[in-house]
Amino acid sequence: MTGPADKPADLGEFGRIAKFFAPLAATPGALGLTDDAALVDCPAGERLVVTVDAMVEGVHFLPDDPPDLVARKLVRVNLSDLAAMAARPVGYLLTTALPKSRGDDWLAGFAAGLAQDQAEFGITLLGGDSVSTQGPISLTLTAFGRVADGAEVRRGGARPGDLVFVTGTIGDGALGLEAAQGKLDGVLDPVDVAYLADRYRLPQPRVGLGPRLSGLASAMMDVSDGLVGDLGHICEVSGVAGLIEAGQVPLSAAAARLPDRLATVLTGGDDYELLFTAPPERQAAVQAAAVAAGVPVTVIGRIEAGQGVRVLDPAGGALALTGVGWRHF
Amino acid sequence: MTGPADKPADLGEFGRIAKFFAPLAATPGALGLTDDAALVDCPAGERLVVTVDAMVEGVHFLPDDPPDLVARKLVRVNLSDLAAMAARPVGYLLTTALPKSRGDDWLAGFAAGLAQDQAEFGITLLGGDSVSTQGPISLTLTAFGRVADGAEVRRGGARPGDLVFVTGTIGDGALGLEAAQGKLDGVLDPVDVAYLADRYRLPQPRVGLGPRLSGLASAMMDVSDGLVGDLGHICEVSGVAGLIEAGQVPLSAAAARLPDRLATVLTGGDDYELLFTAPPERQAAVQAAAVAAGVPVTVIGRIEAGQGVRVLDPAGGALALTGVGWRHF
Predict the structure, then answer these.
(1) What sign does the dihedral B235-A107-A3-B207 (CA atoms) show?
(2) What is the ipTM metric for this complex?
(3) pLDDT (average), residues B1-25
(4) Beta strands A163-167 and A297-304: pairing type?
(5) Chain A residues touching B5 at Cβ < 8 A
(6) SS3 readout for B295-328
(7) Is residue B198 assigned to a domain?
(8) pLDDT for B182-196, tens place per residue?
(9) Structurally, how many domains does chain A consist of?
(10) pLDDT of A62-73, one tens digit each?
(11) Per the domain annotation, does B51 fall within a domain?
């Protein structure tokens, strides 16, 4: 909550806190944003789950992206990390580094987006820091969740014979960035372009499903760096190998209409879907959890002994990643 | 722990994590930095205290400041916030946004500073995020501490009749910035300039004293925005008035040798000393706690009924803040 005196102009730090952030922090632990730190309760038998993600203008969002959507994406990429641990979200700390050229209008839109997602996900602002920068907007959000002791799902539990599952559809994040940059104009119908751009700008963290997979999933993470690479992380930490059947990877209707999309779908990032493994005997329970959460779940492959990730093309042949894409071998 | 694919070059994100950050995260809750989030235990009867502070190159530190000192300042400004709540530090999450022009050399020095302060303060890295930026270096640290339920000291408890205390010496932070910028060359002896610059670059968070003041201090915060303004925060939240006797404000020998320093001492920031109030009958216990912690504590004023902060000059006359400094009235 504290910081040096060089702050963005206009309302000043304290004015901005009072106008934009205090209304978002109406929980006792936030202490009205008037103290040096915030308090987070953790009931006996539970553990706190903490994660942080940063977003930089020009790198993670576009300068003319609507500020409310920037705020909501920042919230959601962090909630996705909590969901991937099977944790329920509780609240967050926020840091904004803004250039003086970004006035209170930008912050008003940003705060409106935070308010919208606080209501949607049942979370609250707990505190933060506001500083100025001479560079692009830089945002950091620290999210807090809770999970019963031992109920967290980690990356290291995948075992040979497990099935590999994903939620939702894969590839929309990376294709959506291309859509938002105008690269798909004329390639896809404008409705498809808008759909994909929205998927990039506003991920859907699977907060309803994540906690339901505790005790079912043997390993879990969210797809943020790309499907193949992320399954590779699970396999490396678990000491196993992974197999993905490319033809089983679920695509949105918009992505399915795009030619030559396979490399992007398999290696693009920013999907924020859950990627998890579970033994076949739990498949029915996984599907029941998915129905209860209202989130589609698809089996896309399996875990084997060994190491690395293999991808089978729809015809059953192997694909290999090269420096510039994918090739048959 | 997750993030988009556009990362600083050289080792790559995962290489940097493995080389620089994994050695700092040797605690079970960090999960080896391999999961989407970290776990923080909170024993029954305790609460977690959380705070976040950001530092931006060119705003909060100078581009040629040694990276190990930048790291240690980032740690310490956050630990100071925890101390001001009477909490004991536990660990932290770290976010770095680096331009590609800052290579692994900078990060190696930065990580060395983190390691040094982890050892000094008994804390550990729990996780983080590494992203690239096209702007100046932007750093965010989220610190976690623990405090027995109800033992936290907040800002709102000051009562008329309480004494006002500070730790250490005041004004060195702001004067130290001037020293680091070369503005005091020729005004002060080089030894004094170096002393003040070091005080700016490397604050001493009062982590040993803060928790000892639980049950003694009626209100507490750290001096980061300037002594008068910060006491004003305590007074506003507590619904009381504050009186500072300028002649009692403890100065370092270097600061004491500087002419015309009063406005800077009273209103400069970045001291990261503790500012707290306590009833007179607890003064002996406060001094005993200070001796036990090895931190000097000085009474600089008192709390009265009313609102606002008055400053008495050494001769007993009132001082008032103007737009450009202090005047008698």
Answers:
(1) positive
(2) 0.88
(3) 66
(4) antiparallel
(5) 225-226, 269
(6) CCEEEEEEEECCCEEEEECCCCCEEEEECCEEEE
(7) yes
(8) 999 999 999 999 999
(9) 2
(10) 888 899 999 999
(11) yes
- Taking an 8 Å cut-off on Cβ atoms, the answer to whether A140 and B237 are in contact is no
Domain-terminating residue out of A84, A119, A148: A148
Coil/strand/helix, residue A128 = strand
Question: Are A53 and B132 in contact (CB < 8 Å)?
Answer: no
CB-closest option in B59, B144, B154 to A132: B59
**Nearest CA distance, A38 vs chain B (angstrom):** 5
Q: B160: distance to nearest CA of chain A, Å?
A: 20
Mutation choice for A interface testing from B13, B36, B126, B218 by most A CBs within 10 A:
B36
- Average model confidence (pLDDT) for chain B? 90
Residue A324 burial class via C-beta count within 10 angstroms: exposed 0-12, middle 13-18, buried 19 and up: exposed
Partnered with residue B96 across adjacent β-strands are B130, B139
User: Residue A323 pLDDT more than 70?
Assistant: no
Chain segment B282-323, per-residue pLDDT in tens: 999 999 999 999 999 999 999 999 999 999 987 778 876 644
Please give the average per-residue pLDDT across A35-48, as a whole number. 88
Q: Is the same domain home to A235 and A320?
A: yes
- Tokens matching residue B133: 């930026």
Amino acid, res. B171: G
CB-based contact A135 B134, cutoff 8 Å: yes
CATH number of the domain to which B63 belongs:
3.30.1330.10
Distance of CA B98 to the CA centre of its chain: 23
Q: How far apart are CA A214 and CA B252, in angstroms?
A: 57
Question: Tokens representing B313?
Answer: 């000059």
Residue A157 is assigned to a structural domain of this protein = no
Whether residues A88 and A193 fall in one domain: no
Question: Which residues of chain A neighbour B47 with C-beta distances below 8 Å?
Answer: 39-42
Residue of B127, B143, B269 with shortest CB distance to A4 = B269
Residues of the domain holding A22 = 12-148
Helix (H, G, I), strand (E, B) or coil at A149: coil
The three-state DSSP-derived secondary structure of A246-309 is: HHHCCCCHHHHCCCCCHHHHHHCCCCCCEEEEECHHHHHHHHHHHHHHCCCEEEEEEEECCCEE
- By the 10 Å C-beta count (0-12 exposed, 13-18 middle, 19+ buried), A94 is classed as buried
Of B220, B263, B227, B235, residue with least CA distance to B84? B220
Q: How far from chain centre, in Å, is Cα A299?
A: 20
Classify residue B248 as exposed, middle or buried by CB count within 10 Å of its CB (0-12, 13-18, 19+).
middle
In a domain, B95, yes or no: yes
Q: What is the CATH number of the domain that holds B282?
A: 3.90.650.10
Regarding whether B37 and B130 lie in a shared domain, the answer is yes
Residues B128 and B204 in one domain: no
Answer yes or no: do A112 and A205 share one domain. no
Are the Cβ atoms of B97 and A51 closer than 8 angstroms? no
| Domain final residue pick, B91, B122, B148 | B148
CB crowding A173-187: b at 16 or more within 10 Å, else e: bbbbbbbbeeebeee
The pLDDT tens digits of the residues spanning B268-284 come to 988 999 999 999 999 99
